[in-house]
Design a protein that fits this description.
Blueprint: H1 2-7, H2 39-49, E1 52-62, E2 77-87, E3 91-98, E4 102-107, E5 110-115, E6 120-125, H3 126-130, H4 134-140, H5 144-147, E7 151-159, E8 162-169, E9 176-186, E10 189-199, E11 204-214, E12 233-236
Parallel strand pairs: 6-12
Antiparallel strand pairs: 1-2, 1-11, 2-3, 3-4, 4-5, 5-6, 7-8, 8-9, 9-10, 10-11
Length: about 240
């Protein structure tokens, strides 16, 4: 059913991203020309130097092959698009625009998931919902030592022109097996270019970020205030 689909696909924070099921995992800022010792240094700068971000994303979700399926058959891939914004340490929002409109908003206390087609809203404690999720990596932490309490972090070889960090949850029986973050240096600083994730059901998700804006002056706390529309059912979890 559609509701089940939405709940199992977010994308900290966050069903389609992996936030409620995983799921609703962004950014390192460094001066141009800065020499990074390795990707963990880049991650540390990312956490400390990006108090707020606004970006767009394209997400590709691939389901694992079913038993007996042709091993050479290409996996089925579902594509979705939207925007992502955050203000550290406790406000962010994912707005999916295609193929199905959905908003996932963390206001500092509550995580709201609004399925617009179903006219249904789910709410739950933000801290509980986002533990060990991509959102805790991307938008909630501001210090690598604090982040290391929840994830084993390791620098990986550069590839595709990106610096990579792999994050493995210290809770081994959780919804996520690992997350990989790929960073690149641009004229405006270091940006999160790609996020890859493998969940406990062997479903893989890749988010590619575009139009990455670091510390936009127009982004403020009002953007993360969520008020359920009149007449829409709210389910508290």
């Amino acid at each position: 059913m559609k509701a089940h689909r939405c709940m199992n696909t977010l994308p900290l924070v966050l069903k389609r991203f992996g936030l409620v099921r995983m799921v609703t995992g962004l950014v390192v800022f460094a001066l141009c020309g800065f020499a990074h010792a390795d990707a963990l240094d880049t991650l540390a700068l990312f956490l400390k130097s990006t108090p707020k971000v606004s970006t767009h994303f394209v997400q590709a979700v691939s389901a694992p092959k079913k038993p007996g399926a042709d091993k050479d058959a290409a996996p089925k891939v579902k594509i979705s698009k939207g925007s992502f914004e955050f203000i550290r340490p406790d406000r962010f929002r994912f707005d999916y625009t295609t193929p199905y409109p959905q908003s996932i908003v963390a206001d500092g206390h509550t995580l709201w998931i609004h399925d617009i087609d179903l006219a249904q809203i789910t709410s739950k404690s933000e801290a509980e919902a986002l533990a060990n999720t991509p959102a805790s990596l991307i938008a909630r932490s501001s210090d690598i030592a604090d982040l290391s309490k929840a994830f084993v972090l390791e620098s990986q070889n550069n590839s595709d022109g990106l610096e990579w960090v792999k994050a493995t949850p210290r809770v081994s029986d959780g919804p996520i097996q690992f997350i990989r973050m790929g960073f690149k240096t641009t004229a405006s600083g270091v940006q999160l270019s790609r996020l890859e994730m493998l969940d406990a059901f062997n479903q893989s998700s890749t988010l590619t970020f575009e139009d990455f804006q670091i510390n936009p002056s127009s982004l403020n706390a009002q953007r993360f205030v969520f008020k359920p529309p009149a007449g829409v059912e709210v389910i508290k979890q």
